[in-house]
Amino acid sequence: MSNNQYFTDDNQYREFLDKIEVLNHDEEFEKIIDIIIEIPENDRPYELNVLLSGAYFSLDRYDEAIELLESIEPDDNEEEIAKYYFYLGMSYYHSGNYDEAIPCFEKTHEIDPKDIDTLLFLCFATSEYGNDELFSEYSQKLEALDKELYDSYFNSQNTVAEAYSDEEVISLEMFIEDNIGEYNNVLRDVSTTDISCDLLLIPPNDEHEFYTLVTCGMGAHKMNVPSDEFYDRAELVLCLPKSWHVKSSNEKWFWPLRLMKSLAHLPILENSWIGWGHTISNGEPYFDNTELSGVILGNSPLMEDNVLELPNGEKVCFYQIYLLYEEEMNYKIDTSADDLFNLIGELNPVLDIRRKNFCEYGRKKYKIPKSIMEDLFETKDSHTGCFATDRIIVDGAEIRFMYREMPLDNQDSGWRFMAGDEDDEYMNDTSKSGIYHLNTLCNYEPSILKFLDEPYGSMFIRNKNGEFVKFER
């Protein structure tokens, strides 16, 4: 940097790069362009030209990105040359110039034959260009590399993850591109070994002014569905506002991504399944700036066809994730998924952490506010839901009768709690009871903690000494 006339020293240049990094994080690409083009071309380092081309690319200004990259020479080292041709290839690919993109990706592949993204886009580009011979060649290379990488990783973990074949991945990603849009980022999943479930990030575009996240890998696992009438393979779709910081690791922004990954792994952990109309409760709000605390799976309004047929004939169903309030989940449990969707109507698929609660009339005032509840009950089991009456939750009456029956779904613990003075009329009024997290009941009555592992069929009554005793039927 010492020969540069614009930046007086390396510290000034580093501060400038830090500023661009912040703008990149906030997706302020226009501002990045503005501050870089203020620098005379002769004083503009190669690195800044690459960042400038990236800003053009992010704004779908592919022609400008191509013109800029073609006007500069990459730094004289293989790593930079490989990056240069990959970026140029991506610009050509997304502008529809597949014949120009192929040789760029090939140059990157020659330098780094183990870069899986380069091979993947070589498959895409050769397929779109209609070169069946090259498509077959690179598909085989991709399959071999994919197997090598997975074998290397999962052998070190002493386990084998379920995964799509390379042919299935290509089919899946083309289906997503055709039905929702082109993704520009892949959030890799390397944290677990049951399935490899990446998240594909589709940026705001002319059709959808919001981010869309789609799982890619969940459907590699065949779920334990009750019958052939249900889809045993699934992928999930979630939409986030344009203002959402999708690349932030701060939990304020990251929790929807964590939720998607959790839902993707749930059927394996529970040896069960999820599908249309299923609700999954978090037991508490996902973050402290919202009261949303659960989800329901439904059809995606983004897709005309939400079912993909894989090359082997098997089918994968795509479900939209809709965030719910606790009262809305209770309404669905008391009625049905159809009734809930009829109530909420054309619900916007884009997450709104402060949207209207369609069951606001059912909001109850807890005797113990949620804000002061402690974490008393901890478990890795997802069966944490329970039934309790308002005599306990709202009136603050002590628990005098509790029993455990077989769960109704994969979120239900089977536990039922009552004050003991509810008559039939009270119990038949569904507005006077609800589904809660076991931790909520533990805050009302900590002494129940020691009984929560009791088997199904167990029943307890509080005696005159205030102690729970087992009732033998």
What is the structure about, briefly put?
By secondary structure, the protein is of the alpha+beta class. It has helices at residues 10-25, 29-37, 46-58, 62-70, 78-94, 98-111, 116-129, 132-156, 166-179, 251-270, 326-334, 337-344, 390-393, 424-428, 438-444, and strands spanning 185-187, 198-202, 210-216, 234-241, 279-281, 294-298, 307-309, 315-324, 385-389, 401-404, 412-418, 433-437, 459-462, 468-470.
Name the features.
six-stranded mixed beta sheet; alpha+beta; eight-stranded mixed beta sheet
Structure notes:
- The structure is a single chain.
- α3 (46-58) packs antiparallel against α4, α5 (78-94) packs antiparallel against α6 (98-111) and α6 runs antiparallel to α7 (116-129).
- It is built from 15 helices and 14 strands.
- By secondary structure, it is an alpha+beta fold.
- The strands form two sheets. Strands 1, 2, 3, 4, 5, 6, 7 and 8 form an eight-stranded mixed sheet that branches. It has a six-stranded mixed sheet with strand order 12-9-11-10-13-14.
- The model has no long low-confidence stretch (mean pLDDT 86).
- It starts with 9 loop residues before the first helix and ends with a strand.
- The longest helix is centred in the N-terminal third of the chain and has 25 residues, at 132-156.
Fold topology:
Layout: H1 10-25, H2 29-37, H3 46-58, H4 62-70, H5 78-94, H6 98-111, H7 116-129, H8 132-156, H9 166-179, E1 185-187, E2 198-202, E3 210-216, E4 234-241, H10 251-270, E5 279-281, E6 294-298, E7 307-309, E8 315-324, H11 326-334, H12 337-344, E9 385-389, H13 390-393, E10 401-404, E11 412-418, H14 424-428, E12 433-437, H15 438-444, E13 459-462, E14 468-470
Helix pairs in contact: 2-3, 3-4, 4-5, 5-6, 6-7, 7-8, 11-12
